[in-house]
Design a protein that fits this description.
Layout: E1 8-12, H1 19-31, E2 39-43, H2 46-56, E3 61-65, H3 82-87, E4 92-95, H4 98-103, H5 108-120, E5 124-129, H6 133-137, H7 141-152, E6 160-163, H8 177-195, H9 197-200, E7 204-207, H10 212-219, E8 226-229, H11 236-244
Parallel strand pairs: 1-2, 1-8, 2-3, 3-4, 4-5, 5-6, 6-7, 7-8
Helix pairs in contact: 1-2, 1-11, 5-7, 7-8, 10-11
The structure holds 1,3-dihydroxyacetonephosphate.
């Protein structure tokens, strides 16, 4: 944790669930949200954003999307713009997740353009960075994260950074606490160097196999200001337990 920074626990629901399941999950998170020591955010699939936002009604649990296009509007079949997400009730958007970098060839430059579009539409961008297992084994983890930060964050960035080592996502494996702390310290140093006081207070989330059982130890580390939770966010009790562990 960073002194004076309230943790953010964000659920990335990825491509899971029916409309009814998304609404039920959102309702269960809302019903357990009172008095937790963290801000809560849920990020359903595009199709479910409006319904979940309507259900949560601007209350304690915020709603985000998992991507947006870099343009505000235009001939981009199948895409969704940041203003559309804002209009649907979203306040945040995850950008540059490793699954999008891998599945859709998103480069740092693309992520940067999307982060600019999100900010212009009034959304808080959550920009993801993280090394592959091969990069870590080659001793390149810090260099990869620094390169992704330099390329993916626009000038005047005022969002959230999420460190998600690719090899920890959905695998049940996590870096050691020392390794998480080391990367988060590097991210903090880069943010402070580039954005000054704003960078000192910017939230840096950890993501990758975060569960109720490991959350307290990870969230207690310096410069870890919350979590970006995949699998465990699909079970309301687990997601709420992770948020409780932020206290
Ligand atoms: P898991 O928590 O399922 O490992 O996913 C992490 C993630 O990718 C969140 O964006």
């Amino acid at each position: 944790m960073t002194p004076g920074v309230r943790p953010l626990i964000a659920g990335n629901w990825k491509m899971h669930g029916s409309m009814a399941e998304a609404e039920a999950l959102a309702g269960a998170v809302r019903d357990g949200a009172a008095g937790l020591p963290a801000d809560l955010l849920v990020c359903p699939a595009f199709l479910h954003v409006a319904a979940v936002a309507r259900l949560l009604g601007g209350g304690a649990v915020a709603v985000g999307a998992q991507d947006c296009h870099a343009a505000a509007k235009g001939a981009h079949t199948g895409d969704v713009s940041a203003p559309m997400l804002r209009d649907a009730g979203a306040t945040h958007v995850i950008l540059g997740h490793s699954e999008r970098r891998a599945d859709h060839g998103e480069t740092d430059a693309v992520v940067r353009a999307k982060a600019e579009a999100a900010a212009a539409a009034g959304l808080v961008p959550i920009v993801c960075v993280g090394e592959t297992e091969a990069e870590r084994l080659a001793g390149q983890a810090e260099a990869v994260v620094e390169r992704q930060l330099a390329g993916s964050l626009p000038e005047g960035f005022a969002g959230v950074v999420a460190y998600e080592p690719v090899w920890a996502i959905g695998t049940g494996r996590t870096p050691t606490e020392a390794d998480i702390g080391a990367i988060h310290a590097v991210i903090r140093a880069r943010l402070a160097a580039r954005f000054g006081a704003a960078g000192q207070g910017m939230r840096i989330l950890y993501g990758g196999s975060m569960k109720p059982g490991n959350a307290a130890a990870i969230l207690a580390l310096p410069n870890v200001d919350g979590g970006l939770v995949g699998g465990a966010s699909l079970v309301a009790a687990d997601f709420l337990a992770i948020a409780k562990a932020a206290g």
